[in-house]
Design brief:
By secondary structure, this protein is mainly α. It has a domain at 7-63. The chain has helices spanning 43-53, 72-165, 177-180, and strands at residues 26-30, 35-38, 57-61. The chain is rod-shaped. The termini are far apart. The structure holds zinc ion. Residues 10, 12, 20, 22, 38-39, 41-42 line the site of zinc ion.
Length: 181
């Protein structure tokens, strides 16, 4: 007697056994689009077949029972789990904020050090330029000193003659002209 409300039977085909005739519990859908009803017992075989074929199969329950109300202990467990998850989320948020602040702090430190390093580099360049100028001036002074020393030596050679030039004899006059005159 055919009946629309009859329990669907398993349609999974076994390669080595007679066809299964157990009541189907799931709808099997192969990744190439084929669908068939399948019983609980045949699901592992279908999964194995999918693995052997290197294809995938998904299983959807045929039962659309409304969700059963939670028992008191299930509710308690769920609430505890929710509270624990919320606590963990708060902790993670706090930790995230700490890490963010630490990151901001470190970024500022790096910027400060970078600025200082640039300042120091500029100062070193300035000092190097100053040293270069001082060395140039030192060389100029050394040249001037050498010139002055040479001049001094020339003058020292000339000094004895200069002293004689001022004597009356050097001017071509007799030394006792005033007495003899
Ligand atoms: Zn079956």
């Amino acid at each position: 007697m055919p009946n629309d409300n009859a329990i669907p039977l398993c349609e999974f085909k076994h390669a080595t056994q007679p066809d299964c005739t157990k009541p189907a519990t799931h709808k099997l859908r192969w990744d190439w689009g084929q669908e068939q009803k399948i019983c609980q017992d045949c699901i592992p075989l279908a999964q194995q077949t999918a693995t052997n074929l290197q294809r995938s199969a998904t299983f959807a329950s045929l039962e659309n029972r409304p969700e059963e109300p939670l028992t008191r202990s299930e509710r308690t467990a769920l609430i505890a789990a929710k509270l624990a998850a919320e606590g963990e989320a708060d902790e993670l948020k706090l930790r995230g904020e700490q890490l963010y602040r630490a990151n901001v702090d470190l970024t500022q430190q790096v910027q400060t050090h970078t600025l200082r390093a640039r300042e120091h580099a500029t100062q070193i360049q300035t000092r190097e330029a100053q040293i270069e100028k001082l060395q140039e001036r030192l060389e100029q002074r050394e040249h001037q000193l050498a010139d002055a020393s040479a001049e001094l030596q020339r003058l020292q050679v000339l000094v004895p003659f200069v002293g004689k030039e001022t004597t009356p004899e050097d001017r071509g006059l007799p030394s006792s002209s005033t007495v003899d005159g």
